[in-house]
């Protein structure tokens, strides 16, 4: 009841970050917000965040899953809340809830993306890692940018990986975040 949906009803994507870090909002309250966004035709996305105090990850996230279009967790978190270990098994489990795209962030190993039509593994860009703070959030920002741009899933994953790779080359969460043009130039240079 604290959310004014008039503020977001014309949005393309509603992304919820930091799931598991907001005790008053996690679980059913998050699910209700996602459900309402879907009623407005908004694409819904969620990224989890590690919280060692959470006892039952699955119980907390399960109400949200049927209302998601995209889920972008770190592989370790996805293993915790699905009980699966292999990327394909995690993705298939989550797709079973009606989620359209599962993107697993795998740090220095890159990412694994699966939809009903595609399965893509993209290695990480070879860069000198200085600080991984914010890399997952940068990846998500890159991923959602690609979705808004309407790019093919492989290009979205490449752009998300590039956004994360640029982030880890600097100290702090935002110092390595670049413009769209700079990120595309980085991709062209590396490829």
From TrEMBL:
Q: Which InterPro entries match?
A: Carb_kinase_PfkB-like, Carboh/pur_kinase_PfkB_CS, PfkB_dom, Ribokinase-like
In its UniProt entry, the species of origin is given as: Aerophobetes bacterium
Q: Which family does it belong to?
A: Belongs to the carbohydrate kinase PfkB family.
Species lineage, top-down? Answer: Bacteria, Candidatus Aerophobota
Report domain Carbohydrate kinase PfkB positions: 5-178
Instruction: Provide the alphabetized UniProt keywords.
Output: Kinase, Transferase
Protein's UniProt name? Carbohydrate kinase
Q: Give GO terms: molecular function aspect only.
A: kinase activity
């Amino acid at each position: 009841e604290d959310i004014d949906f008039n503020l977001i009803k014309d949005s393309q994507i509603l992304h919820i970050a930091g799931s598991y870090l907001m005790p008053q909002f996690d679980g059913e309250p998050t699910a209700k917000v996602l459900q309402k966004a879907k009623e407005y035709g908004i694409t819904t996305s969620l990224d989890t965040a590690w919280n060692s105090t959470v006892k039952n990850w699955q119980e907390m996230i399960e109400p949200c899953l049927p209302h998601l279009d995209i889920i972008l967790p770190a592989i370790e978190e996805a293993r915790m809340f699905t009980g699966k270990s292999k990327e394909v098994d995690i993705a298939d489990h989550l797709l079973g809830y009606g989620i359209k795209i599962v993107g697993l962030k795998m740090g220095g190993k890159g990412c694994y993306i699966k939809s009903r039509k595609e399965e893509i593994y993209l290695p990480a860009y070879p860069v000198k890692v200085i600080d991984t703070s914010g890399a997952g959030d940068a990846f998500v920002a890159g991923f959602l940018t690609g979705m808004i741009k309407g790019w093919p899933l492989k290009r979205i994953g490449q752009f998300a990986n590039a956004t994360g790779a640029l982030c880890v080359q600097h100290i702090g969460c935002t110092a390595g975040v670049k413009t769209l043009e700079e990120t595309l130039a980085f991709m062209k240079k590396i490829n």
